[in-house]
Amino acid sequence: MTAVPHSPPAAIQLRGVGKRFTGSDGEAVGVAPTDLDVAAGEIHGIIGFSGAGKSTLLRLVNLLERPDSGEVIVHGENLTRMSPPQLRAARQRIGMIFQHFNLLHNRTVADNVAFPLRIAGASPERIRERVQACLSFVGLSDKAEAWPSQLSGGQKQRVAIARALAPEPHLLLADEPTSALDPRTTLSLLEVLDDVNRRLGVTILLVSHEMAVIRRLCHRVSVMEAGEVIERVELANGQVPPDSRLAQWLTEFGGASPTPAQAAGALEKESASV
Ligand SMILES: Nc1ncnc2c1ncn2[C@@H]1O[C@H](COP(=O)(O)OP(=O)(O)OP(=O)(O)O)[C@@H](O)[C@H]1O
Predict the structure, then answer these.
(1) pLDDT band at 259 (very low <50, low <70, confident <90, very high)
(2) What's the ipTM?
(3) 55 within ligand 1 shell (Cβ under 6 A)
(4) Which of 127, 206, 209, 215 could staple 238 via S-S, CB 3.0–4.6 A?
(5) Is 48's C-beta closer than 6 angstroms to any atom of ligand 1?
(6) Cα–Cα distance, 238 to 156 (Å, whole number)
(7) Which domains does the chain have, with CATH numbers?
């Protein structure tokens, strides 16, 4: 019998998903009706200039933004057709981290990590076990009783990652997770995210305007311009295909040639960003 080749299951399938915003100066396109496919186990980047629609696209995946059109399918489940209780349950399988960490400042680190589990009605044993496991994973077991104000930016983002991992998600949405961090802290944070993907098998969709971050971490990248995904690029060891639109951008705006040596080199903020 001939083996039938099969592609990895899809983690995210956006089909014609669009979002418009109404403001004081009329309607604006956040994301034009768009398709996006992210395979399970992949780290997929979204890059583009400010206002291109990156954050909106990311927030459409867990329906933090409700689309005006199209369907959002995550791990085979159509989120756009779910009832509110079904959607709450599905969101337990989708973690999210943000540029400014969004920790609860009046709760300890352990309570922050426990928060999504408490909301979901997990047992005290399960909460204790997951808090320990997740803080250990991000290297902050000794900070369980600290307050967020006592932590550095990098440590705060590690706590946010631990909190996102607590319900054992299949998918992590990361919105500019290193933009508030210095280059060295950025590098160690990217290693944590790489571990989340490799060791836990979590698919990651990551928004960044920093090409160095995308190169270091992502297997593929979708390039956005004016609310549209204009290109999807495979990154082999961080190398950008020279005939891509992205390579053209880097030459025009980043002043850097997209070589693997650069990708492997120290991650500096002043390197190519769009
Ligand atoms: N809540 C909102 N109300 C009105 N307009 C919005 C809202 N959120 C986003 N927009 C508009 O949608 C477009 C896309 O915004 P979005 O934040 O997704 O872009 P971005 O690529 O993430 O930008 P940045 O890199 O600056 O964060 C912009 O024109 C923005 O002004």
Answers:
(1) very low
(2) 0.97
(3) yes
(4) 215
(5) yes
(6) 27
(7) 10-93+169-263 (3.40.50.300), 99-168 (no CATH)
